[in-house]
Amino acid sequence: MKAAVIVFPGSNREGDMARALERATGQKPAMLWHADHELPAGTDLVVLPGGFSYGDYLRCGAIAGRAAIMDAVRAHAARGGLVLGVCNGFQILCESGLLPGVLMRNANLRFVCKMQHLTVERNDTAFTRQYAKGQVIEVCIAHGEGNYEADDATIERLEGDGLVAFRYCDAKGIVGGPANPNGSRNDIAGVFSEKRNVLGLMPHPENLIDPLVGGVDGRALFTSLASAA
Amino acid sequence: MKARIVVTLKNGVLDPQGKAIEGALKSLGVEGVASVRQGKVFDVEMAGADPASARAQLTAACEKLLANTVIENYQIDL
């Protein structure tokens, strides 16, 4: 598994992401700069880390979505390559057109930073095969603009095609209501692309890979990816 | 040539910031406010003098970057 992490001005989770990838794959990921034009030959997985790319100016992820490297990321995704975007990376994937919809300001207008439960909607993907279908996992969230919105037709398509990856829930796995931290439509925390080779999610699995920080429920996402290629 | 681009949220898209401002106006005693929607204004100085080509360039700017057409509308005033 050869992974590449794209670093934008304002990214701040690239170190955690690189550590999680190295632990799972045994190989340090390549760190690429936003102004680069090419991915290293043989790249299996491209990761867009969390942070505040370009200061979140204009809209979250909007400027990063049009950065030079993103043409290479789009080409990689088009040929079936794996792409993961976490938090600001999810926002970038939506703004770049790699995933549908948009992340808006949290409905309660508050930045939320806390532990959060999620349901794993399906485990037949490169990202989730080492989870169980319907498993409740606990990871952390830290975002001000994680309120997933799309038009009704898009939401219907995502639901109908099984492209919702994770949903916000409580510790018992009950989805919705107070368990939804940001007002996301249908409690959506993450979505897949049509071919399920692109995943964007707001929570930070890369921060829950070590018992020292309170949990390891994020690990399986990275070990799933490591076994995928 | 000066241009002003106004980007606003489409109708029906929840605007939490607009709602917060609406609440603040009400608490300040400003009367008659039915609702508030927040948008963005871009003042752009175009180097050329041809309005038609400027409009075409600004439309491209809106479609490519300034507006997210999933949730936003834009209006160009030259």
UniProtKB/TrEMBL annotation, chain A:
Which CDD domains does the protein's record reference? GATase1_FGAR_AT
Q: Which GO terms describe its biological process?
A: 'de novo' IMP biosynthetic process
Q: Which residues form a coiled coil?
A: none
Subunit info here reads:
Part of the FGAM synthase complex composed of 1 PurL, 1 PurQ and 2 PurS subunits.
Query: Which Gene Ontology cellular component annotation is one that this UniProt entry carries?
Result: cytoplasm
- Per the UniProt entry, the Enzyme Commission number(s) are 6.3.5.3, 3.5.1.2
Q: Which GO terms describe its molecular function?
A: ATP binding; glutaminase activity; phosphoribosylformylglycinamidine synthase activity
* Taxonomic source organism: Methylocystis parvus
- Catalyzed chemical reaction(s): L-glutamine + H2O = L-glutamate + NH4(+); N(2)-formyl-N(1)-(5-phospho-beta-D-ribosyl)glycinamide + L-glutamine + ATP + H2O = 2-formamido-N(1)-(5-O-phospho-beta-D-ribosyl)acetamidine + L-glutamate + ADP + phosphate + H(+)
Q: In which pathway does it act?
A: Purine metabolism; IMP biosynthesis via de novo pathway; 5-amino-1-(5-phospho-D-ribosyl)imidazole from N(2)-formyl-N(1)-(5-phospho-D-ribosyl)glycinamide: step 1/2
| Subcellular location(s) per record | Cytoplasm
Query: Which purpose does this protein serve, as stated in its record?
Result: Part of the phosphoribosylformylglycinamidine synthase complex involved in the purines biosynthetic pathway. Catalyzes the ATP-dependent conversion of formylglycinamide ribonucleotide (FGAR) and glutamine to yield formylglycinamidine ribonucleotide (FGAM) and glutamate. The FGAM synthase complex is composed of three subunits. PurQ produces an ammonia molecule by converting glutamine to glutamate. PurL transfers the ammonia molecule to FGAR to form FGAM in an ATP-dependent manner.
Which keywords does this chain's UniProt record carry?
ATP-binding, Cytoplasm, Glutamine amidotransferase, Hydrolase, Ligase, Nucleotide-binding, Purine biosynthesis
Reading the lineage from the top rank, the first entry is Bacteria
Q: Which InterPro entries match?
A: Class_I_gatase-like, PRibForGlyAmidine_synth_PurQ
Q: Which residues form the active site?
A: C87, H204, E206
Report the leader peptide range. Answer: none
What Pfam families does UniProt report for this protein, alphabetically?
A: GATase_5
Protein name per UniProt: Phosphoribosylformylglycinamidine synthase subunit PurQ
Statement: the UniProt record of this protein carries the keyword Nucleotide-binding: yes
Automatic annotation (TrEMBL), chain B:
Q: Superkingdom of this entry's organism?
A: Bacteria
Q: What does the record give as EC number?
A: 6.3.5.3
Task: State the pathway, as annotated in the record.
Answer: Purine metabolism; IMP biosynthesis via de novo pathway; 5-amino-1-(5-phospho-D-ribosyl)imidazole from N(2)-formyl-N(1)-(5-phospho-D-ribosyl)glycinamide: step 1/2
Q: What class of enzyme is it?
A: ligase
Record-linked InterPro entries: PurS, PurS-like_sf
Query: Which keywords does this chain's UniProt record carry?
Result: ATP-binding, Cytoplasm, Ligase, Nucleotide-binding, Purine biosynthesis
* Example of a GO MF term: phosphoribosylformylglycinamidine synthase activity
Q: What is its main location?
A: cytoplasm
Gene Ontology annotations for the cellular component aspect, listed alphabetically: cytoplasm
Keyword check for Transport, yes or no. no
Q: Where in the cell is it found?
A: Cytoplasm
A Pfam family per the record: PurS
Which reaction equation describes what this protein catalyses?
A: N(2)-formyl-N(1)-(5-phospho-beta-D-ribosyl)glycinamide + L-glutamine + ATP + H2O = 2-formamido-N(1)-(5-O-phospho-beta-D-ribosyl)acetamidine + L-glutamate + ADP + phosphate + H(+)
Q: Which GO terms describe its biological process?
A: 'de novo' IMP biosynthetic process
List the SUPFAM superfamilies.
PurS-like
Per its database record, what is this protein's job?
Part of the phosphoribosylformylglycinamidine synthase complex involved in the purines biosynthetic pathway. Catalyzes the ATP-dependent conversion of formylglycinamide ribonucleotide (FGAR) and glutamine to yield formylglycinamidine ribonucleotide (FGAM) and glutamate. The FGAM synthase complex is composed of three subunits. PurQ produces an ammonia molecule by converting glutamine to glutamate. PurL transfers the ammonia molecule to FGAR to form FGAM in an ATP-dependent manner.
* Family the entry assigns: Belongs to the PurS family.
Q: What HAMAP family does UniProt report for this protein, alphabetically?
A: PurS
Describe its assembly. Answer: Part of the FGAM synthase complex composed of 1 PurL, 1 PurQ and 2 PurS subunits.
Under what name is this protein listed? Phosphoribosylformylglycinamidine synthase subunit PurS
Per the UniProt entry, what species is this protein from, by scientific name? Methylocystis parvus
Q: Which gene encodes it?
A: purS
